[in-house]
Amino acid sequence: MTSSVAMLTRHDKARLIAPALSQLGWQLTELDSFDTDTLGSFAGEYPRFMTAQECAFRKAALAAELSGRDIGLGSEGSFSVGPFGIGTYNLELICCVNVAEGWAVTGRFYGPSLARQWQLKDAAALEQALADVEPGQHLLLQQGHYLKKALTVAQAHNLALLRLANGDVTLSYDLRAHLSPQRRLHIQQAADDLARRLQSYCPECSTPGFWPDKALPGLPCEACGVATNLTRHRRACCQHCGHTTITPVAARHASQQYCQECNP
Ligand SMILES: [Zn+2]
Ligand SMILES: [Zn+2]
Asked: For residue 85, how far is its CA from the centre of ligand 1 (angstroms)?
């Protein structure tokens, strides 16, 4: 069965997401009449007033509403400090809402990002910074109120050299999807995750998105058998009928390095 699915998008995101959904026989239609950046953008032009999850859901519901289709998609990316306070992590969410059947499923990617920012004082620091930028990644250049976006590495190099004559320059990644190869890859991975979840159905009522999201701790220590904080079971719960399954993970025991008794 071929379904037509609508998505509000700028920055070429639909092209990244469409291949994963074609496995389901879904055809993605882009609506570009709506400026999704007014819902909050990480470039900071508008303050955020929703979580990334709410934002993706809202965009998906709007896409369905504005297109008059049953299914809408919404995507949202965000960047934050990684676990343990190290590095920058990218969260990509793609929410799929079926307004006729009343369900929503969200695919996700979460992982380290190459995103960087540099305060530059001279040409030597500039050369060093630019040597680390991966091919195709675009940059933002800031100096006081001056802001220039979407610069190639060569453009950023020339502009920064000019600007350094007036003082320090801040260079950072332009993380909009069409300007960041790594982010495009992460969006594709979130789309693959969404496709897998959409093909996982509740055994009771067949609603999609039946997925063992919830990790339950308690994997026993290999030496003393005491429950550790490692995952022992995973729980899936249907958003429509509430049907729940709890499945044990493949591992039978936790290494004693995770045990509070053996390795306090
Ligand atoms: Zn133990
Ligand atoms: Zn169900």
From this structure: 29
Residue 144 backbone class (left: φ over 0; alpha: ψ -120 to 50; beta: rest):
left
Q: At residue 211, does pLDDT exceed 90?
A: yes
Question: What is the Å distance from ligand 1's center to 264 Cα?
Answer: 9
Centre of ligand 2 from the C-alpha of residue 257, in Å: 39
> Taking each helix axis from N to C terminus, what angle separates 123-131 and 153-164, rounded to the nearest 10 degrees?
160
Residues near 66 by beta carbon (within 8 Å), at least 6 away in sequence: 6, 8, 31, 33, 34
| Alpha-carbon separation of residue 166 from 125, 159, 160 (angstroms) | 16, 12, 10
Q: Look at residues 6, 10, 13 and name the one whose alpha carbon lies nearest to residue 183.
A: 13
> How do beta strands 3-8 and 26-31 pair?
parallel
Rounded Cα distance, 47 and 195, in Å: 31
- The residue ranking higher by pLDDT, 135 or 46, is 135
Cα torsion 248, 253, 257, 259: sign: positive
Whole-number Å distance, alpha carbon 171 to ligand 1 midpoint, is 49
| 49, 223 contact by CB (below 8 A) | no
Beta strands in 88-173 (DSSP E): 88-98, 103-113, 117-120, 139-143, 146-151, 169-173
- Alpha-carbon span 162 to 68, nearest angstrom: 51
- The ligand minimizing its distance to the Cα of 259 is 1
Q: What is the pLDDT of residues 235-262, one digit of tens each?
A: 999 999 999 999 999 999 999 999 999 9
Mean pLDDT along residues 216-223: 96
CA 206 to chain centre: 27
Question: In angstroms, what CA-CA distances link 54 with 41, 51, 58, 158, 198?
Answer: 13, 5, 6, 40, 19
